[in-house]
Amino acid sequence: MLNRLLGFTVLVAVAFVLSVASAADLKSGPQVGEKVPGPLHPLNCSGDHAGERYCLYCKYGTSPVAAIFARQISPELTRLIKRIDQATEKNKERNMGSYVVFLSVSDTLETELKELAKKEKFQQCVLAIDDPEGPKEYNIAPEAEVTVVLYTNVTIKANRTFKKGELNDKAIDAIVAELAKILPE
User: Fold this and answer.
1) pTM score, whole prediction
2) 3-class DSSP string for 105-157
3) In the chain, what are the domains?
């Protein structure tokens, strides 16, 4: 019985280590030290260019930017967007920009995003839609539920990628703390 319990414990520990390693190994989007791949033209659902395919990369230029690529709306993602929106509003004088590009072909997503922006009172963070594979040069991994890229001067300073169910309050706090990497002092 003891051997069986010990064997089960070892099996659970190995499975945990492998799952953590696989999440850490998932690469999605441009990586730290790389240049932002360039223009992207998603359908903007909020912001100054709502209803248009407008280049968010072009809009923000060399400014500090929090860019999020997501597969679907979730409570955790909504909390992250709210925190990023607040940070963007707080850092307007530093020209901080932020946007979330939802990678989906849902017929109702545009309406859902407009309602979300209104309900949550997002002031600065632009919500947009692109094809499920995302902008080609950005290399968003199909298994990535959320990819967060923080950049300034078109250079990636932080990249965080999450599989479905991995984004949580601890991860959100870590992302917000990493905004210091892109904000001028």
Assistant:
1) 0.86
2) CCCCHHHHHHHHHHHHCCCCCEEEEECCCCCHHHCCCCCCCEEEEEEECCEEE
3) 27-181 (3.40.30.10)
